Amino acid sequence: SWNIFEDRILYQLLVFLQPPSRHSFRLELYGGTHLPERCSNIRVVLECTCLRKMEDIPCFVHPCKNNETAQRSPLLKTLCTGSYLDLEEISCWVQNLVQTAWEHLPQWQHWQLTVLPSSHSCQLLLTGPSDMQLCAVLVFAVEQGSP
C-alpha cells in the first residue's frame, strides 16, 4: 500500500519469508490461540529427506555415516533464536543488507538513504534532490501452510 503525507510518500511492502531448502516454518499455538502479530512462535524445522528417492540429497535430520550430526543453515543461525524466527535479527539483517546494496545502485549519488531504527520491520527513508522524501516500510510475513 502507499499514502501521501505533505512532502513524503509512504510505501508499505509485505515481504514473505521463505524457509531454506530442507526446512519449513511451523506456527506454534500458545494455549490454543495463535498470535499472528508475533514472530516468536514461528518454529524453523529441519525436514527429513530419507523418504525421497534422490541419493544426492543428504538427510540432515537422520544422520548417516558420512553426515554424523544434524545440520542447520548458517543463515538460520543468524536469523533465529534457538529454533524460532527472531524478528529483531531479521530486521537488523535486512537493514544491513539494504545499506550495503544501496551503494551499488546508480541512484545512490542523487538520493540519500537513511535506515530508520525499528526492531520489527525495515524502515527506509530516501531523500531526493528536491528534498522529496520516500519512506518504505518492509513488513515481514510467513505464508500460512508454507512448505
TrEMBL record:
Protein's UniProt name: IPIL1 protein
Organism: Myiagra hebetior
Designated gene of the protein: Itpripl1_1
